[in-house]
Structure formats: structure tokens, C-alpha cells
What we know:
The structure is a single chain. The protein has helices at residues 67-93, 95-100, 103-120, 137-150, 163-171, 186-194, 224-231, 258-266, 283-291, 321-325, 345-355, 357-365; strands spanning 8-9, 32-33, 36-41, 47-52, 126-132, 154-161, 177-180, 199-213, 249-253, 278-280, 296-301, 310-312, 332-340. The protein is of the alpha/beta class. Strand 3 (36-41) and strand 4 (47-52) form a beta hairpin. The relative contact order is 0.13. Mean pLDDT is 79; it is low at 1-77 and 120-124.
Amino acid sequence: MIGRDIQLVGRYDMWDESDRSDSSKHKLNAITGGVNYNFMHDDGGKAKMNLQLNVTSKTYNEDDSAAGYADGAKDQLQVMAQLKMALLKLTESNERKTRRKPRRTTMKKYMMILLALSLMLPILAQTITCSGSTTVLPIAQATAEAFMNKYQNINISVRGGGSGVGIASLQNGTVQIANSSRMIKSKELSAARANGIDPRGYAVANDGIAMILHPSNKVSALSAAQIKDIYTGKIKNWNQVGGDNLPIVIVSRDVASGTFEVFNEKALKGAKVDASAQMLASNNAVVSTVGQTPGGIGYAGLGYLNDNVKAVPVNGVMPTEKTVKDGSYPLSRKLYMYTNGKASGNVGAYIGFIQGPEGQKIVEANGFISLN
């Protein structure tokens, strides 16, 4: 069932009346873990209950407003405060009775408290954490928002950083989903398995890496060979490919980028990018830089194109839904989400949502190409 797997943050320690003089035990600490119930009796017959209660809180999305996340965390803290007050009232109301009644009755009261609490657990939210590709980022953000609107007891934290960062985070067990604009490498797979992680990939969209120029550039098309020669420094002026006498400014993604990995493989055939290239950390940065640089050339995922740049055909083929899906566009690819083992529970439901009709409409609305 959606929302039944609970991840936790926060702790309450509730003691019986014998320890109530120490009110400092009723406070919130920042810890992680699960729901733990620990009943103890000392030699004098004093009952003691430790209750560890968790509620997740969201982290901020990269390039997004923190307001919504702060509100979510505030709501969850209010739930925790309400639970705490309810538990304290139940304890206070039974202080005198507990002194007079045998241990069995006291334990029964605690079990009733736990039963009541268990009925409230579905309102406590689980956080799904994902990070990685900035190409996949808008898909993850938009689908996460739609999924959370459907299942309001689930929070999804989305961060960028690049495909390599996302896969490394999955290897280290710090995220549940690694967003990647390329397939996982064999060395990454081996490193993950050595760490007890079993990466499983799920395609969430199709994409084409578009070659982009400044709108004022007279060049209207490029061959794969020309792109390679430009990026390796053999062609340095636009007049060598039919343009004006204007130095070429190479704009590329950094080496942590999955888009860079695919471009390096498909366009450069593994050749080294010229040392003069600007190596940028995101699709947005590439598009923005090329849009402000008359001699600029760059590449980006289809979902990032805007009127400030122009895409040109590669080997006479433009990146369209048809050419990307049939592979005739030379820089076609799929976008992925990786999980540790087969996606299940809320994580599986979220990925299934993205791959389903509603999620694929969101993919298309963000400028990418659906799977079907």
C-alpha cells in the first residue's frame, strides 16, 4: 500500500511517573532510524518505556523554491508535537493509577498507547530521495510534484549534481534513486555490488542531445565529423564550416555529466575535448552561455531548448520524436532512474507512475520524448 513504509526523523523518550521529574527527557533530537518500542523493568518493578518516533522532512530541490519544503517540514513537526502531547496526557492521567496497580496493568496501558499510535502512522510521510542528472532533473521534479499531489503522505526530495554524482550516491546508500542520462558503467556497477548495492535501471524517457548555436550564427547544419573537429580543436573558426569569420567558443558539460559521457562516446568517439572548452555543470548553464555568445556552440537535452539558442541538424537529421525513437538521429539516448535492487514499495510506485500514461504526459510537457 502506498505510504506504509515509514522512514523516520525525530525522537521522543517517554517515561513513567517515577521519572517525570526529569522533563528534559521529553524533547526532540535530530536522529534517523525506525520505530522502536523498548519496555523495561528495573529490580524495583518500575515500568519504563522508550518510544522512538520518526517523521521525515524534505530537503530542498536544486534550482527550486524552498517554501513548499519548509511548509512540509512544519506540518510534520506539528504532527510530532501533537503526538507528544497526546502521549504525555495519557501518561499524566495514569500517574497515580500506575503507582497503585500491578505491573501487568501498566504494561497494558502502554500497549494501548502503542496501538493508538500505530493507527496514526499512515499520516507520517516517507521521503523518497533521488539525485543525479540535471537532464533528468525537470522530469523528476515535475513527476514528483504530481505524485505527491496524489499521495500526500509521501515526500520526494530531488537534487541534481550530474549522473556520476547520482550513481555514486546510490553506491554509498545515501539516495534511493539515482537519476542518470546514460547507462551505468561496468566499473560503477562493480563498485556498487562490492558495497552491497545492486543497481537496477528503469528507462523513464527518450531524449536527443541537441547541438545548439547562437541564433545569429549563419551555420544551419553540422556533420558528425565537423562536430568532432570543432570539439577537439581542429576547426577553430566558423568560416571553416560556412559561417562568418568568427572564432568558435566551445561550450561543453563537465566530466560528471551523463550528457558529456554520451556526447563523448557518440560524437567524439572518445577523443579528448579541446583545452579551451568551457566545462559547465548543467544544461541550463550551457544553454545560457551559448545564448549569450555569438561564436558559441554547445549541446543539451531537448527539454532545455529555448528561443535564445537554435538547434541544428546533425548529418542532416533534426532531433524529433520520430528520429529519436527510431535512432536515426545520431545523438539519441534514453534517460534512466537506478534503484538498489528491483524498485518496490513507494519507490516502485513512483517509477511506475513516471512510466505510466500520466507520467509520460509530464515527460512530453517538459520537452522530452515519451517511451511509447
